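Much of our argument rests on the idea that a fold can be written as discrete symbols. Part of our work consisted of pairing the sequence of a single chain with a tokenised description of its backbone. We regard such an encoding as a compact summary of how the chain folds. The amino acid sequence and the backbone structure tokens for this protein are reproduced below.
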Amino acid sequence: MEEIINKVASSGLVTIDPATLVASGTRSHLDIADQLWQGLALKEKDFREWLKNTDWSVFQNHHVSISCSADAIIPPWSFMLLASALQPFAASIVVGSPEDLEAELFRRAVKAIPTEEYRDARIVIKGCGDIALPKSAYVDLVNHLQPLSKSIMFGEPCSTVPVFKKRT
């Protein structure tokens, strides 16, 4: 009987599963719309009082996105004050939507990938998974890995879409 050879395993392809880069931890979103005066603007005195009287420890180790859903006048210092209140507790803080938070967390994870181990590698970035990833995640991976890699493909090792191939 002829031995079955796993050609994918012996191909030298390096597979990256982007789902393994998703940061663990609780996500929270803070909408400061409830802190607006008459739904129009933020009053510094009232906002500072709210900040002082809120138990920020409930955000211990959370990844927090902050925004204002109302079309209102929001001064930049309001986000600074809120970040200052959250900083001792939150794992990370991003201004924007929960989707913006996921994109930033992924961007940070990609930047932490040690690129040297991918020098001249033939990389397959896995495309199917149970976790929804930001579209920017794939762009971040290409931007980070392309300068060193020999090639980048998308999909599964047995069925890939070529994305990049270094010219020789």
Summary: The chain has two domains: 13-23+103-165, 27-90.
